[in-house]
UniProtKB/TrEMBL annotation:
Region (Disordered): 188-225
Transmembrane region(s): none
PROSITE patterns: PROKAR_LIPOPROTEIN
NCBIfam families: SCO0930_lipo
Biased composition (Gly residues): 197-219
Name assigned to this protein: Lipoprotein
One of the Pfam families matching this protein, by short name: Lipoprotein_15
GO biological process terms held by the UniProt record: alkane catabolic process
Source domain of life: Bacteria
Amino acid sequence: MRRVTTVGSVAAVLMLTAACGGGGEARGGNSVQPVGAGKALADAYGSGSGYGAAPGELSGSGAGSAAGGGQAGPAGQLAVREIASVGSVVTDGAGATLYRFEKDTPQPPKSNCDGDCATAWPPVPAADAAASAGIDAALLGEVTRSDGTRQLTLAGWPVYRYVKDTRAGEANGEGVGGTWHALAPDGKKAVDKKQQAGGGGQSGTGMGMGMGGGSGSGGYSRNPDKELSVAVNEKLGRILVDGQWRTLYRFDKDSAWPMKATCVGACAETWKPAAPVDKSKASGIRPELIGTVKRPDGSEQLTIDCWPVYTFTGDTEPGQTTGHNKQGLWFAVTETGKKAPVSAG
């Protein structure tokens, strides 16, 4: 849908206003908590550790003072924990998920996360770290950071926590920016190992086949001729996916009238603006609901019922919906452009 300014009669403008004025939906719900969430990490590390931040304290690239200057508590005895949406991940002694950064290097070990990055992703100290069942102690090591402190490594990868994981068993950092991933016990990405173990399928996403595809049992069906279609999710119902079967999301800080996309910069690195589609290659959605909006950088972004839509880098397998209800601001999109049910996330 292109912006309409002076084209057409007053009646046409009024009709467009009515079509794109549906911005009155209430924002609801807190961010989804992964299966296995437990005790508050702030309690586990103590008030003086400076570790942990309440959801929503960080904005944009996730800097600020929420992490107390990036300080972190000791690693303690590492353990392996199963998180449904991610797989078998390594946690510290308090149950916090541990991460690796794709811009670091394991051979030789080198950390490239400093300054604001280290505030949002506190490096885990090397001292006092110990392995438990399922983790090879020989894979534990350390690297000296630019400030002279010693950081824990696993299979050569520098190890971090994430300030938005505020309770044991959370993995809110998985997939952030497409560069942060929860660690598997061998130092690889936990999500990759989960996918390999499932034969590359879509384990646990609960997606059925798309429109006209019959009823699936947790599988999925991609139509290479479609750039936009409807998938059936057992929790969220009928939601929109792109041609690669990636879930589409809308952002509560955007607006439908006037159409405006506000996710830019670091935000757009995590939430990728969806590209415009050919309406003739869309299935299960009324053509008049499909449009575009010009972004601040001049590029065109897909809109559904006038809402700009995005894909989430944290969705690492086709049909995943891990971005639904993130921060109480991001929601999977239904075939009518509305938000999928908040309580179902």
